[in-house]
């Protein structure tokens, strides 16, 4: 069998490695138009910032390595111009010599990756404007910084790469401004969680403009659509990627609803003996079963392995993704998996949401707060998605939630997980377990939650409601929700006769625990409809900024 792979980064090289493990006799040839292969794209921001000192550490493997270890021939700076799937041939251009020649295959894997999206902005072609998609881009940015010593930078877009570059530029002493056309940073997070990231960015000295687009890029400034000007010695466009599908589409290979190459669970396209994997191919969502496009290095490696297995007669099948992501910005970590609240509602789920604010370990061991947003289906109790913002232990918790959602866990199951506990690592009841407890109470008992948005709607509706601030009086005096009355938890039982049991009642404290205790008292004394404010006053104040 002669296997040809188009693309030699994460997916393509993973496909080659798996194919070789399965079949020692296969001929394996990879064509890539770039000069660098099998590189760590996710590490590029850290080379720009100097945390990774040598670029070679991000490109440890070259064609000679793959020839030696896998007996695979990789031809760099070779562009595949066309695919003739009827005759199983490819037209290929040697970019170094200009020669065009033809090759043939028995099986073909398209792992052509994705390209940076460049918005239609005047001045986007200036020499001080960059994208960061490959090692060549990285080297150009690094060379520009070394040569011109810029003092200010604008980053357009606030996805993972944009925020990671932001942190690394600040480490170099460069003044950074972020511009995001959406209402909040980090499109993968809901607004009530993104606000925590925004606050941390501002505290770290980063300027933010949200809900606005760039109109023009000039030599030393960026002009916003409202004509405000932002100083910028150089600009990074971090506005997403699009799958490289032109070659496939021209050959009659079907694209999916997301615009990426449509594949089945074996990475097969609609054309016999043609497969696709990595950032150019479409995936499907574990929760909804619907097509999605979420290009990630981890998914590229996984789908590449499955493609390599499939072309050699293996049994591996793709099981979908959750859109899991994690990033660090300064010392804060944000992570997400599954459906966001917005996505869950769009899919028609009857959504329950909780905001759980807990330390990652006891405070006496240096624990720091994390905010966990859980999204569940009220009708079934199934966990749909989770978002976490914190400083330590976020990665550990998000991976537990990933596993739970993958295996269709219900919120009540989280409490029963036998998670590792010792004070240096966790609280006795881990924040994961608390999230399950809170959601389970809200769904399966009368301990209902109300989000900040829902509380605002209730207050503005004109309905009769009584809002109880169960914190200490001193906290109430410092700041409180406008219509709330101060009844500290310790005095609540003594003031029950002053409250109307038939009126909608909302309790809150600082983070939610004491508010829940006050809610229990009221329910146990016959109050009909009592809600606890999700995430308490702290989350309410944050979310009002979103």
Automatic annotation (TrEMBL):
**Matching SUPFAM superfamilies:** FAD/NAD(P)-binding domain, FAD/NAD-linked reductases, dimerisation (C-terminal) domain, Rhodanese/Cell cycle control phosphatase
Its required cofactor(s), as named, are: FAD
Tell me one Pfam family matched here: Pyr_redox_2
Which InterPro entries does the entry mention? Answer: FAD-bd_OxRdtase, FAD/NAD-bd_sf, FAD/NAD-binding_dom, FAD/NAD-linked_Rdtase_dimer_sf, Pyr_nucl-diS_OxRdtase_dimer, Rhodanese-like_dom, Rhodanese-like_dom_sf
| This protein's UniProt keywords | FAD, Flavoprotein, Oxidoreductase, Redox-active center
Query: Where is each Rhodanese domain found?
Result: 461-544
Q: Which PANTHER family match?
A: NAD(P)H SULFUR OXIDOREDUCTASE (COA-DEPENDENT), PYRIDINE NUCLEOTIDE-DISULFIDE OXIDOREDUCTASE DOMAIN-CONTAINING
Family (UniProt): Belongs to the class-III pyridine nucleotide-disulfide oxidoreductase family.
The protein in question is named: FAD-dependent oxidoreductase
Please name the source species: Clostridium boliviensis
């Amino acid at each position: 069998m002669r296997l040809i792979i188009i693309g030699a980064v994460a997916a393509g090289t993973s496909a080659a490695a798996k194919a070789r493990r399965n079949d020692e006799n296969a001929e394996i040839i990879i064509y890539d138009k770039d000069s660098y292969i099998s590189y760590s794209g996710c590490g590029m921001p850290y080379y720009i910032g100097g945390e990774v000192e040598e670029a070679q550490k991000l490109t440890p493997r070259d064609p000679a390595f793959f020839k030696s270890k896998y007996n695979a021939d990789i031809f760099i700076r070779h562009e595949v111009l066309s695919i003739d799937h009827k005759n199983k041939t490819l037209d290929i251009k040697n970019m170094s010599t200009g020669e065009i020649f033809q090759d043939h295959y028995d099986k073909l894997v398209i792992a052509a990756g994705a390209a940076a999206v460049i918005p239609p902005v005047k001045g986007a072609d200036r020499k001080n404007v960059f994208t960061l998609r490959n090692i060549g881009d990285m080297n150009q940015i690094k060379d520009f910084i070394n040569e011109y010593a810029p003092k200010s930078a604008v980053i357009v877009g606030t996805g993972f790469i944009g925020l990671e570059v932001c942190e690394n530029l600040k480490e170099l002493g460069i003044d950074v401004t972020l511009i995001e056309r959406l209402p909040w940073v980090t499109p993968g997070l809901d607004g009530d969680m993104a606000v925590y990231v925004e606050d941390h960015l501002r505290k770290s000295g980063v300027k933010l403009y949200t809900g606005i687009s760039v109109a023009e890029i000039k030599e030393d400034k960026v002009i916003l659509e409202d004509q405000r000007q932002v100083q910028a010695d150089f600009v990074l466009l971090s506005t997403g990627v699009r799958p490289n599908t032109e070659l496939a589409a021209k050959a009659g290979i079907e694209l999916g609803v997301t615009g990426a190459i449509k594949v089945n669970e074996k990475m097969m396209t609609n054309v016999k003996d043609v497969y696709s994997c990595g950032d150019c191919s479409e995936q499907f969502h574990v929760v909804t079963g619907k097509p999605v496009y979420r290009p990630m290095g981890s998914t590229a490696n996984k789908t590449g392995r499955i493609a390599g297995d499939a072309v050699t007669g293996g049994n591996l099948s793709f099981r979908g993704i959750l859109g899991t992501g994690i990033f660090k910005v300064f010392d804060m970590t944000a992570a997400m998996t599954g459906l966001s609240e917005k996505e869950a509602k769009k899919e028609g789920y009857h959504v329950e949401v909780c905001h759980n604010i807990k330390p990652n370990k006891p405070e006496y061991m240096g624990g720091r707060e994390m905010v966990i947003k859980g999204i569940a289906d009220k009708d079934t109790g199934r966990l749909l998605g989770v978002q976490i913002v914190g400083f330590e232990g976020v990665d550990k918790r998000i991976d537990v939630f990933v596993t739970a959602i993958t295996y269709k866990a219900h919120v009540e199951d989280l409490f029963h997980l036998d998670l590792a506990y010792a004070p240096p690592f966790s609280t006795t009841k881990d924040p994961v377990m608390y999230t399950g407890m809170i959601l389970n109470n809200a769904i399966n008992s009368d301990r209902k939650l109300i989000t900040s948005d829902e509380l605002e709607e209730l207050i503005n509706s004109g309905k009769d409601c009584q809002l109880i601030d169960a914190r200490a009086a001193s906290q109430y005096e410092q700041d409180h929700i406008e219509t709330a009355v101060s009844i500290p938890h310790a005095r609540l039982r003594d003031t029950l006769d002053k409250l109307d049991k038939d009126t909608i009642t909302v309790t809150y404290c600082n983070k939610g625990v004491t508010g829940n205790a006050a809610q229990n008292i009221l329910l146990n004394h016959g109050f009909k409809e009592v809600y606890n404010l999700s995430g308490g006053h702290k989350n309410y104040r944050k979310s009002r900024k979103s």
